[in-house]
Design goal:
Helix content is about 10%, strand content about 40%. By secondary structure, the chain is mainly beta. Among the domains are: about 1-230, no CATH class; about 560-699, Sandwich (Jelly Rolls). The strands form seven sheets. Strands 13, 15, 16, 21, 23, 25, 28, 29, 30, 31 and 33 form an eleven-stranded mixed β-sheet that branches. β5 and β6 form a beta hairpin. α2 (about 25-30) runs parallel beside α6. About 50% of the residues are buried.
């Protein structure tokens, strides 16, 4: 399959003679990592991005048995998740497996793993001596750090510039071939992704050497600086026009905020801030439209909040192309070129007036009819979905288009109504990304899970931000509630010459009706592209509320749990105890304790029907006002993992629900008393919020 795909690629790519005069090098690829303007032109020299991964090899073709098979790196797969078995497993279970094989010039542009063991050997250009021979995780997680230490450099200053969450983007170019062999135990974890740029035969590529870190030091230092401070990407950019925006949009009205006929040019920075009585709904119901060069349909059409990848509401994060600040300022740095004209509109589909302020920075741009492309961001949403496991999974379309372009990013905004309080049970993203390019019958990008695509692992609910990916909101508990994920394809952009079909499986842990799944496929395309997007309807542009008065359900990681609503327990002690209402809390209520000083205590009484060993879990509110606490049960100090005795509920910005788990203890049948002690310096507004408490039986 790979050989056939490469033959087709070479056939059409060789016809394109506009190869770069300078060779592809480690330094040139690092420069591309922060060059957003480069994405707006079809790649020169051309390349195709493919992904090698541990996807379930029972997936052979769409809509055939095994297409949604999900044994993709946990161990004991029916078919090893590699290209070939080189040496069958020995008596200890150790075998050798071909992970990557590419014949022709190219570059490794991304690696990812959840928890791979074993060892890797990486051979470039047919050399018998590997350029890497060591732990598989080091190569997939931290290539820059490994090679920097090898040649005596200190990599600590790189921060998360190259290593981003569970992925690594430090490029490894090769002139003739790349072969990667994994040695390890199949019965142990071995999730992996390796993305490769395949250049056409004849493309000049200078093969990676560890010394490239010194010879390309200037490019590396600049990339690190910009990736760590994305606003620096605009330093030195000339300004052709800078338009300040300040307008009000009444319900049901459309307002034109910008019209420029002085092309060619490019929007280099778009800054917007929306204000309204109900901000979350204003951000979803105010539609941003941008038209380039007189297009009858806007190339950009999305709710303002969703366009910036952090909906619902304002959820701060910073990545290379997108930033959302705490004060509601939202910044897009994707380059948006036009040859003649650009116009920008706002359409208020809600029932409240909104105020919009911001600025549009337009720069000169040399439009090339043979290469230049328009930026596109077409939003779509599917409300009231039934997410289901196994046989109920299906491929959710993100973008299906015919034409020429480059795929550069994805954002998803979900409302997951699952009543299960643990990720094992309420996880929505078990499904894989599948990307078909230019007539493929099998996707050249086939992943291992939605969170793996977004560069993290294990359906984690913690918030993070990196230059190319972010998770700005997960209201919880665990992966329940409102969630946003984004990933930007910069070095690993996905060019297509004729067509692209990008799908993500919707594959959840258990049947979950009522799920809302909004998504944007950010891409560039030449005029004449056709896609499957339709205009946004009023019924689309609504923020689906969380279910009212939901009750936690014991399933998956909470199977067998005994739940107690905190507000129903007898609570007494120091400070002030109250109950507040809200959509996030189970039963719509949250017990709030405001201690008067550090060391204050409250007790809660609960009845245990059956003696046994239980882990005690307190599903609690995390807010900017929350503090820290310790807990005892019947006078016995409760301890968390790593022997911690304190739980910290403070968040930097959002209000969320999180599970605070304590190590198992033995409980007799009868009445028990939980005691909470304030472990923080108390201010007037500080609080501890308890939603529900549950006992999880353990053996």
């Amino acid at each position: 399959m790979r050989i056939l795909l490469m033959a087709c690629f070479w056939l059409y790519a060789v016809c394109d003679s506009a190869f770069a005069a300078e060779p592809i090098t480690t330094g040139s690829l690092v420069r591309e990592m922060v060059d957003l303007a480069r994405l707006a032109g079809f790649p020169e020299p051309p390349y195709k991005t493919i992904q090698f991964s541990s996807y379930d090899r029972r997936s052979k073709a769409p809509n055939t048995p095994g297409w949604y098979a999900n044994s993709d790196g946990f161990g004991r797969e029916p078919i090893p998740g590699f290209l070939r078995v080189l040496k069958p497993a020995d008596e200890e279970g150790v075998g050798e497996y071909l992970m990557v094989e590419v014949n022709g010039p190219g570059a490794i542009v991304r690696g990812w793993t959840a928890q791979i063991g074993g060892e890797l050997r990486v051979f470039l250009d047919g050399s018998e001596k590997p350029v890497y021979d060591g732990p598989a995780s080091s190569f997939l997680f931290d290539r820059y750090g490994y090679y920097a230490r090898q040649i005596g450099l200190q990599p600590e200053g790189a921060g998360d510039a190259f290593h981003q969450r569970d992925a690594d983007y430090f490029p490894i170019p090769f002139a003739k071939s790349c072969r990667i062999v994994w040695k390890g135990k199949l019965r142990e974890l071995h999730f992996y992704h390796i993305q490769i740029r395949e250049y056409a035969q004849g493309t000049a590529v200078r093969t990676f050497r560890p010394e490239d870190l010194k010879t390309s030091a200037e490019a590396i230092d600049r990339a690190i600086a910009i990736l760590q401070n994305p606003s620096g990407a605009l330093e030195g950019v000339s300004v052709k026009e800078q338009v300040q925006l300040e307008l009000s949009v009444e319900p049901g009205r459309q307002v034109q905020a910008l019209k420029s006929d002085r092309g060619p040019g490019a929007i280099r920075k778009l800054v917007l801030k929306v204000e309204g009585p109900d901000l979350r709904n204003a951000l979803r119901q105010t539609i941003l439209r941008i038209r380039f060069d007189g297009a009858p349909l806007p190339q950009v059409e999305a709710p303002v909040g969703d366009f910036f990848g952090a909906a619902p509401g304002i959820n701060p994060y910073e990545t290379l192309p997108m930033t959302v600040k705490r004060d509601g300022t939202m910044i897009c740095r994707f380059v948006m070129p036009f040859s003649r004209s650009v116009s920008l509109w706002f359409d208020n589909r809600g029932g409240q007036p909104v105020k919009i302020t911001g600025e549009v920075m337009v720069s000169p741009y040399a439009w090339r009819p043979d290469r230049s492309m328009h930026f596109r961001a077409r939003w779509r949403v599917s409300h009231d979905l039934l997410a289901a496991p196994g046989g109920g999974a299906f491929d959710l379309p993100f973008l299906v288009a015919r034409g020429q372009g480059v795929y550069v990013g994805t954002a998803v905004m979900l409302m997951n109504p699952s009543p299960v309080p643990t990720a094992s049970g309420n996880w929505w993203g078990e499904g894989d990304e599948k990307v078909f390019v230019d007539g493929e019958t099998f996707p050249s990008t086939f992943g291992t899970g939605s969170e793996d695509y977004f560069n993290y692992s294990w359906s984690r609910c913690d918030l993070f931000e990196h230059p190319y990916c972010a998770q700005p909101i997960v209201t919880g508990p665990d992966t329940r509630g409102y969630i946003s994920n984004c990933r930007w394809h910069v070095l690993d952009a996905l060019p297509f010459k004729q067509e692209i079909a990008f799908y993500m499986e919707l594959f959840s842990h258990r049947p979950t009706p009522g799920l809302s799944y909004a998504r944007i496929a950010y891409h560039y395309a030449r005029a004449g592209i056709r896609d499957d997007c339709v205009p946004i309807m009023d019924s689309d542009a609504r923020l689906v509320p969380l279910p009212k008065a939901w009750e936690p359900l014991g399933s998956g990681g909470s199977r067998g749990a005994i739940f107690y609503q905190a507000e129903s327990l007898k609570a007494q002690g120091d400070g002030e105890i109250s109950i507040i209402a809200g959509e996030l809390w189970s039963s719509g209520k949250l017990l709030v304790w405001r201690p008067g000083k550090k060391g204050d205590k409250i007790s809660l009484t609960l009845e245990v029907q059956k003696a046994g060993r239980y882990a005690i879990v307190m599903t609690s509110a995390m807010t900017p006002e929350s503090g820290r606490f310790r807990a005892k049960c019947d006078g016995q100090q409760l301890v968390r993992q790593r022997n911690e005795t304190t739980a910290d509920l403070r968040s930097s910005y959002q209000t969320m629900l999180r599970n605070v788990g304590w190590n198992p203890i033995d409980l007799k049948a009868g009445t028990h008393h939980l005691e909470l002690e304030a472990a923080h310096e108390v201010s007037r507004d500080s609080l501890i919020g308890l939603d529900f408490i549950w006992l999880h039986p353990r053996k």
